[in-house]
Amino acid sequence: MTLVPTSAACSFLTLCATLGAPLSSEAFVPAPIGVRALETLGTLASLAHRESLHWNTIQALEQLSTAPKAAFCPLVFSYTNYTRPGYRPHRLVFGAIPGGRGALLGGAGLAISAHCAEPQAAAHLWPGYAAQRFSVGRL
Question: Pick the residue with more confidence: 132 or 116?
């Protein structure tokens, strides 16, 4: 589990949304939901490899894919290159988080608005499109 500031904030917001309180202009998050999210993060941190708490996402993925000290990293952003055969000695698999609401979308990729009239055409505008997974309508 990564708990550097950016990862901790993103994990907190993801857990709050999963618990039914996405970020809003009314209130950051209701206190009871925030407390539950922090308790969940604390539980996960208590079970995590101690070094992993100081890794950023790429450090965690590098560790998992090259010389694993851990077998699982919850609430981590996925980078598709780590799923490709031969990229690293250990190929990684990413999955959805429990709860069915999804997770906070990271900023390392390219997003196409759900309101785009031609999402497939827009997807072809960036280099490496063929290597990317394409999903429409989930966000």
Answer: 116
Q: pTM value?
A: 0.72
pLDDT tops 50 at residue 89: yes
Better-predicted residue by pLDDT, 89 or 132: 89
Annotated domain spans of the chain: 5-108, 109-139
Note the pLDDT tens digit of each residue in 71-83: 888 898 888 899 9
Mean pLDDT of 114-126: 74
Q: Token digits for 74?
A: 């919850």
Instruction: List Cβ neighbours of 36 (8 Å cut-off, separation of 6 or more).
Output: 15, 19
Can you tell me the distance from the alpha carbon of 30 to that of 28, in angstroms, rounded to the nearest whole number? 7
End-to-end CA distance of the chain: 24
Map tokens 């069915």 to a residue.
100
| H, E, C per residue of the chain | CCCCHHHHHHHHHHHHHHCCCCCCCCCCCCHHHHHHHHHHHHHHHHHCCHHHHHCCHHHHHHHHHHCCCCCCCCCCCCCHHHHCCCCCCCCCCCCCCCCCCCCCCCCCCCCCCCCCCCHHHHHCCCCCHHHCCCCCCCC
